[in-house]
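SEQUENCE-TO-STRUCTURE ENTRY
===========================

Subject: a protein chain together with a token-level encoding of how that chain folds.

Sequence line: the amino acid chain in single-letter code, read from start to end.

Question of interest: how does this chain fold, as expressed in backbone structure tokens?
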Amino acid sequence: MDIEISREGMVGIVEINRPPSNFFDYELIKDIADTLDAFDGDSSVRAVVLGARGKAFCAGANFSNGPSKGPNIYDQALRIFSHRKPIVAAVQGPAIGGGLGLAMSADFRVTCPEGRFSANFARIGFHPGFGLTVTLPESVGAPNANLMFYTGRRFAGEEAVAMGLAQKLVAQDEVRQAAMALAAEIAECSPLGLAATRATMRRGLVERVRAAMEHERTEQMKLRDTEDFREGVRASAERRPAIFVGR
């Protein structure tokens, strides 16, 4: 199984299980969205923890066979943003590129010093995706979002909390437990009051993310056939600096 689904009390849990890097593809994002839809239909589930097995949360999209030209993965990603119950992401390691986008789809993020948050798209000759052009500046402000986009720099857990990328810092082996505790605290609230408040606080988010994803995908489609993107993916896989030529 590429995801593990479980429950503890009133908290539903979905965890990526593709170690070591937990790369995602269309099928994985669809599986997560399907699980969240099922949790939406279960009145006994009042909050959700989104996590991953192993040392990485999600190191981004799987480009091992080149960028996907199949079904639009953002159609499935948008379903995650449309989920009606609070989500706490347990980020115990790298959340890179689209993996950062997945983490930012949650309401809250719990992390650790080993957490790594990076919008590394420009470093591989690509354009940000997964709605990050909306969620990142809304969480950390435009200057910090631009710093992340323009440099591709990795921010550790302490920096992530200071910037507002994450809300709680604990030891790495306590991330899941701390995320569960926060989700359980949320689940103690009135489900009607909680749902109404969350709908108000996230009002218009899905529409903004939908528009952003349409633009993000258009830009990604332009860039995926460039020499720079091919070089960026190669360099990343070979763990070396990329040599970009601007075409």
In short: The longest strand covers residues 3-8. Residues 3-192 form a domain with the 2-enoyl-CoA Hydratase; Chain A, domain 1 fold (CATH 3.90.226.10). The longest helix spans residues 205-223. Strands lie at 3-8, 11-16, 47-52, 87-91, 94-96, 108-111, 116-118, 155-156, 168-169.
